[in-house]
């Protein structure tokens, strides 16, 4: 009966005419959610192509939660010629896409131009606004500022030319996986990791060579992969990788120069995959690194070269948790682990010509491997001495590189010609006028005016932009227009509609022929309530400038002249900058007319006469006389500073016999750079007097060249508020501050050839800061001279509460040889390690 039923279900053959009928569309009977889920596994260009199948399919792709663009397939020459339109393709797709919460967004485009980079940056900002969870980028672009505070991002993968914003706080509260592969731009890795409070997995491929110290510190990190395919000789001597991840469970380190890596002990570590490089010059560092993994349970160790003549069994660290060991390395490591891993259960050995010739039997008194139950070996091998050996197997030794397989799966097919020719949508025009004007305010006026040809709506949008920026030193201006700059500015100002200007910038270094026309433009800007005024041209400022009520920020360059008479009243001015002025300025009168001035910057030596800087509201002051110190020969010239509210002071290369400052109780930070002119006894006393006037400062940075005649011990002024000191000066200043700064906590010393030869121990047997407060000391550019060792010995011996001392050898060599000698560096570390330490908690970091 069953066969009869089955035979009854058979149908007659379809006639030839009926065989040409289209097949049934079984996908279309599925719900939209299921179809979108299926399309999410395809590249975006394939899912978009389904829109031609039927009317129902026309916009189904717009509801797919994944977007995947790969423009790196260059097999088709025509496709390669159309790459300038790729940002338009992405913009077109994003404008039609309807999903407001993206699951993933992938974008691969290696040959990115500057214009494409800006458009791709806008695309990335759009997907961040759509709450993207997974971001995969491989192109030359700077990530937008909003990336730093993306709340939904869970998985981030960055390749090659992607750069991070140069400033801004990082807050990625949902990020769990971070991959950085072959980056060629600067990355502040510690700052990035600190902004990821739930980070669980980190992959770094290729050294982050732009960092002096790659600090990987995260309390939540569980998986870490580091692949540095380079030799120790290719890295800077100061380059260092520090790993501090107490929750780490999996660690993979591939070809990392182990002389540049340190890891804190990790008790939670379960699995480690370590590949030793073939050119490591410091085998002791390799052994110390392996010993730091003593808590691991499963260890895979590989090294394809013969290890240098070094007794690896000399280490007595025990691997009590190790249960599985896989070795493709020198067999002296096998002896080491047999003697130190008492609970080893599984041993896998892979043999080659280099690593099999150094076998030595373990010492019997150290041989306590009673738990070994499985041995895997790639060749015939006699085994003895294992009391609980149950199985011997010969597995295949071919290991597939799963990571490469996953990367190859990311490759996408070529985009069809029809999609490449899709017209890009004008997404800007759908924005409100206020938003467009805000965007145009970041462009020079020349470019914002050029947008008037885009469409009828854009014709006068530039006239409502609150910023005007004219820079006629730009090569973009044709030569035939350079004689009519003032007429260009007047024409723009006459058509401009904004009555309250945010910023007005005018740069035109000429001979002053257009003085009247430019002065008229400045008058117009002042009448329109300008807030930021930036001028670099040859012109006499109009009289109305002296009474501008709205001016907040003023920046003056070059040959600008101030009105010779008139009352100055700038009630809103908070920031004032002078750059290389060549005309006379009555600075005291000008400052007195700025009742809310907070920041003053003076670059160069303008004709101030007596430079009297007196303001009760001034908070930040910068004086930079770097290129003009020789002009202070006139003994009548004097710079007087009276700013009781000052919190920041920066003085660069000022002749200190011509400067005086009243004591400032509010001063928090000071950066003082002494000039490099030949010093004498009088000048040295002036410098000390100036420094003593800063006795209330909390953070002080002091730098200079050698002082030939200097007696710093004669000063008895105390620096009771000083907690952080950074010195790049003659070491006699170090003696002065150790004796006078009782609450010093952080000391940073930049050592140089000239300033390190004048070390003298303080007159007091023990300074107060060494007894009670000094906790951190960092020495950069350590030269390994006898004076350097004496200074380090003194601090280590007398600092009773010191927590950490970091010593960084100079980049271009140790000692005076000019070559980096690893043996000399090791000898210096051994010598310093033997110095007596007054603090038992002091940690020494030397590299």
UniProtKB/TrEMBL annotation:
It comes from the Eukaryota. Residues 768-847 form the FBD domain. Gene3D superfamilies: 1.20.1280.50, Ribonuclease Inhibitor. SMART domains: FBD, FBOX. Pfam families: F-box (PF00646), FBD (PF08387), LRR_At5g56370 (PF24758). Residues 30-69, 431-472 form the F-box domain. InterPro entries: F-box-like_dom_sf, F-box_AtFBL13-like, F-box_dom, FBD, FBL13/AtMIF1-like, LRR_dom_sf, LRR_FXL15/At3g58940/PEG3-like. This is F-box domain-containing protein.
